[in-house]
């Protein structure tokens, strides 16, 4: 199991003032409010290293994200969930993976009583049938992967904000 922890260290008030001396006290307080917000743990189920890299980089830009554990397929994701050593608040699930694909994983998670977190499909597929099947199998949301970190950050920030 590959564990990726997303660190969200933010600038201190002093560093913020040094970097932006015209920043109002309210802007510093707003940044501190982000720190106090409940932070979440995410299970990322993604077999492609390049896609995982972009997703992890995007998640690093979201202060609400505390940690991310990566599974390379549905089988490994279920092992993580069943072990209960890591209890995610959200799962990001790719559809096309070896051993157990995203559709099967979604259906399996939906059938488990102990699973109390939403699953979001994060895939490159834009096929309407995939959107339908994902929803039928228990996906809360369906978003397509973005090639650039900033675009991925925007998409994931909207999802994480709702958790």
From TrEMBL:
Gene3D superfamilies tied to this protein: 3.40.50.2300
Record-annotated Response regulatory domain positions: 41-160
Keyword Phosphoprotein: yes
InterPro entries per UniProt: CheY-like_superfamily, Sig_transdc_resp-reg_receiver, TCS_response_regulator
Location of 4-aspartylphosphate modifications: 94
Keywords: Phosphoprotein
UniProt feature, compositional bias: Basic and acidic residues: 12-21
Pfam families in alphabetical order: Response_reg
Residue ranges, annotated region (Disordered): 12-32
Protein name per Swiss-Prot or TrEMBL: Response regulator
Organism: Novosphingobium humi
Organism placement in taxonomy: Bacteria, Pseudomonadati, Pseudomonadota, Alphaproteobacteria, Sphingomonadales
């Amino acid at each position: 199991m590959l564990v990726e922890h997303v660190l969200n260290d933010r600038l201190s008030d002093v560093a913020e003032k040094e970097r932006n001396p015209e920043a109002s006290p309210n802007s510093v307080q707003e940044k501190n409010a982000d720190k106090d917000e409940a932070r979440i743990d995410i299970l990322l189920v993604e077999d492609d290293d390049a896609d995982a890299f972009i997703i992890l980089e995007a998640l690093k830009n979201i202060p609400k994200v505390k940690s991310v554990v990566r599974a390379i397929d549905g089988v490994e994701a279920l092992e993580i969930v069943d072990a209960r050593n890591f209890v995610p608040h959200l799962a990001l699930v790719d559809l096309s993976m070896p051993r157990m694909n995203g559709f099967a994983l979604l259906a399996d998670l939906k059938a488990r009583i102990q699973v109390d977190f939403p699953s979001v499909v994060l895939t490159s597929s834009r096929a309407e049938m995939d959107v339908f099947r994902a929803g039928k199998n228990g996906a809360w949301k369906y978003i397509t992967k973005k090639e650039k970190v900033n675009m991925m950050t925007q998409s994931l920030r909207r999802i994480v904000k709702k958790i």
